[in-house]
Amino acid sequence: MDKLNSLHSEQIVTDRPDFHAGDTLDVHLRIVEGNKERIQVFSGVVIQVKGTGVGKTFTIRKISNGVGVEKILPLNSPFIDKIVKVKEGKVRQARIYYFRERKGKSARIKEVKKGK
Questions:
Q1: Torsion of CA 79, 26, 82, 50, to 10 degrees
Q2: Helix count and strand count (H, E) for the chain
């Protein structure tokens, strides 16, 4: 069991910011097309964070051309170049599935105010 834990701890990426449901992120994804490689930024709101350790995943959602797009990404994926936390949202639930039905002004999430 100790060998398994040590293998898992080696594979965990430590340079990722701490984020929760409701936060707005910019995820820089490394995309390989043939022999070319490029970085694509996926900006959206975190709907859920699921799992622990190496298997930890998060779901991020954005609206693109009027269509909702969701991506489920492993936190420790080698294809994630970096994650930038844009806004910290204030929500009461760990999984905000209700956000999928919201449009317009009702789709706004309150921002955490950082006081002095």
A1: -70
A2: 1, 5
